[in-house]
């Protein structure tokens, strides 16, 4: 039996296993590579929204421009359908140039889907309260699905009063130092 004879469900399950085993955080966008192999694999990947729930967003800089990030985010959100989202926002610790949060278009895409956020990891300079408060405050009205919120700022263990940004008290945030990772 050739691969082209496998059902989309079986191919989707195989793709999910490959993505989880090789790229659990979604940093390498393995699903895009798999869906580009042939038309059968593309159709299978597009028919399986669970493959698109894992969104990795590096902060913007001159080496990470906004346009490709916006298109990639829009593609993942569209292809994930109604699947709960796992989002990792991260600065690049190896990039010593100025890194900034996102454009208004990226914020709009993220905020329009807060009702689907299941996991949100914010790692790096976006954890500075001046960036974190505007990012989470408008979104907090519709975060009923959120099960995990992790915020880690590079090289510091600064505490941020998250209870004032989010209306629900049952949120546990892990504010701690990290080096590397």
Mean pLDDT, as a whole number?
75
Q: Widest sheet: strand order? A: 1-2-3-4
Rounded radius of gyration (Å)? 17 Å
Q: Biggest β-sheet: count, sense, barrel?
A: 4 strands, parallel
Low-pLDDT ranges? 156-165, 167-181
Principal-axis shape equals: globular
Number of domains: 2
Q: Find the count of extended strands (DSSP E, 2+ residues).
A: 4
Written overview of the protein:
The chain is of the alpha/beta class. It has two domains: 1-49; 52-153 and 161-175, no CATH class. The chain is built from six helices and four strands; from the N terminus they run H-H-H-E-H-E-H-E-H-E. A four-stranded parallel β-sheet has the order 1-2-3-4, covered by helices on one side. Helix 1 (8-22) packs across helix 3 and helix 4 packs parallel to helix 5 (104-111). The radius of gyration is 17 Å and the shape is globular. The chain starts with 7 loop residues before the first helix and ends in a 29-residue tail after the last strand. Mean pLDDT is 75; it is low at 156-165 and 167-181.
How are the SSEs placed, and which strands pair?
Layout: H1 8-22, H2 30-35, H3 39-46, E1 54-58, H4 66-79, E2 85-90, H5 104-111, E3 117-123, H6 129-139, E4 148-152
Parallel strand pairs: 1-2, 2-3, 3-4
């Amino acid at each position: 039996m050739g691969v082209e004879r496998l059902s989309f469900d079986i191919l989707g399950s195989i793709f999910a296993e490959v993505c989880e085993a090789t790229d659990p955080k979604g940093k390498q966008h393995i699903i895009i590579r798999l869906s580009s192999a042939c038309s059968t694999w593309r159709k299978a990947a597009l028919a399986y929204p669970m493959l698109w729930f894992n969104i990795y967003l590096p902060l913007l800089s001159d080496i990470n421009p906004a346009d490709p990030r916006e298109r990639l985010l829009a593609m993942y959100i569209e292809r994930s359908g109604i699947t709960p989202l796992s989002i990792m926002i991260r600065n690049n610790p190896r990039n010593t140039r100025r890194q900034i949060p996102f454009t208004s278009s990226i914020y709009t895409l993220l905020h329009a889907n807060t009702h689907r956020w299941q996991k949100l990891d914010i790692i790096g300079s976006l954890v500075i309260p001046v960036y974190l408060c505007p990012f989470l405050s408008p979104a907090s009205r519709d975060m009923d699905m959120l099960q995990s919120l992790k915020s880690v700022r590079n090289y510091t263990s600064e505490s941020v009063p998250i209870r004032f940004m989010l209306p629900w008290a049952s949120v546990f945030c892990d504010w701690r130092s990290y080096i590397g990772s």
